[in-house]
Design goal:
There is one protein chain. With 331 residues, this protein is an alpha/beta fold. Helix content is 35%, strand content 16%. It has ten helices and eight strands. It has an eight-stranded parallel sheet with strand order 2-1-3-8-7-4-5-6, sandwiched between helices. Helix 6 links the parallel strand 4 and strand 5 (184-194).
Length: 331
């Protein structure tokens, strides 16, 4: 069986072949790595095509394939962070979780099972939804492997509601369920970019702060700027394992026309890039991006931006690998 190797994009037309993320090899059964003799694999892309946790506009279940399609435009080197993904890392596309078409909770269980098989091998999952309820599965998998993890949470919304319409599992309850499950450490959690209209005043941040989560609203970000935001993130999560979850609706709607939910006054792509550059060396052991909604993404720019942010995630894994290797060398 062939070795795990990314497609050379200068030798093979990117419009050819099945759409995997960045034309990576497709390996749906992680046990195939053993047959290939592949060890020390760094990351895996996982699609979680579920939108049963959404309240209003839906279609997020179609996002993984839309993101894969746009990712064909991405090249190997992340100029801002400096990682050559194809040369420095080994990874593959793990395909999609077999999500339940009618149950958010069952989809979360399926996602946890698939991602757990990766993290037990030391592979960092880079997941793409789906609505934001998809995060709970991989967070559970990572938290059970590494112990309660910290969380870097980019979003317009706090996602710490108790329930909604009697359901404890939807895109607004993910963080609360993670804390209750013991896989998230609230003392090492931070939410960035909270804004927008509210069902009640507590949803502007207090509901999360009462759980022990630090909150930076978008209005506060405007006052403190990127440098201080980066400092607070780093101070909050420290050097211990943490998870990064990115809801595309933290952005200004001009940058994600194909989203399910919009709020005024979000981040620009450049601001997010600068924040990522400031936290590139943190001990992040899992990532996801959520709420891309292809039925509304006529131009494909939202799916492209999601793919480009995932490219940053892979570049950050490269930085972590260099740090980890240096520590082992220095021992």
């Amino acid at each position: 069986m062939r070795a795990l190797k990314a497609t050379n994009k200068l030798e093979r037309n990117r419009t050819i072949g099945v759409n995997t993320f960045m034309k990576l090899p497709l390996i749906e059964d992680v046990d195939e790595l053993d047959k290939m003799g592949e060890k020390d694999v760094d990351y895996a892309i996982v699609g979680i095509p579920d939108d049963n946790g959404a309240f209003y506009r839906v279609g997020q279940r179609f996002a993984p394939n839309a993101i894969r399609e746009m990712s064909a435009m991405l090249r190997a080197i992340n100029m801002e962070i400096g990682t050559d993904i194809d040369k420095e890392l080994k990874g593959f596309d793990n395909g999609d979780v077999n999500c339940h078409p009618l149950s958010c909770e069952e989809s979360q269980k399926a996602a946890e099972e698939q991602v757990r098989r990766l993290v037990k091998r030391g592979i960092i999952p880079v997941c793409m939804g789906g609505d934001h309820s998809i995060s709970l599965g991989p967070i559970r998998a990572v938290g059970k492997e590494w112990g309660p993890v910290g969380l870097i949470h980019f979003d317009s919304h706090v996602d710490t509601y108790e329930d909604g319409f009697g359901s404890k599992y939807h895109n607004g309850t993910t963080l609360r369920r993670g804390i209750e499950d013991g896989v998230l450490d609230p003392d090492r959690m931070i939410s960035i970019g909270i804004k927008g209209t509210l069902f009640n005043k507590d949803a502007g941040g207090k509901i999360s702060e009462d759980l022990g989560i630090e909150v930076i609203t978008m209005m506060e970000f405007e006052k403190i700027g990127i440098e201080e935001t980066v400092r607070r993130i780093r101070n909050r999560v420290g050097n211990q394992p943490c998870y990064l979850t990115f809801d595309i609706d933290c952005m200004d709607a001009a940058f994600f026309p194909g989203g399910a939910v919009y709020e005024l006054g979000g981040f620009t792509t450049r601001e997010i890039m600068k924040i990522f550059m400031g936290i590139k060396d943190l001990n992040i052991v899992g990532y996801d991006i959520a709420e891309v909604c292809p039925p509304y993404d006529i131009s494909g720019v939202t799916a492209y931006n999601a793919a480009a942010f995932m490219h940053f995630f892979l570049a950050m894994i490269g930085v972590r690998k260099r740090i980890y290797n240096k520590k082992n060398t220095d021992k």
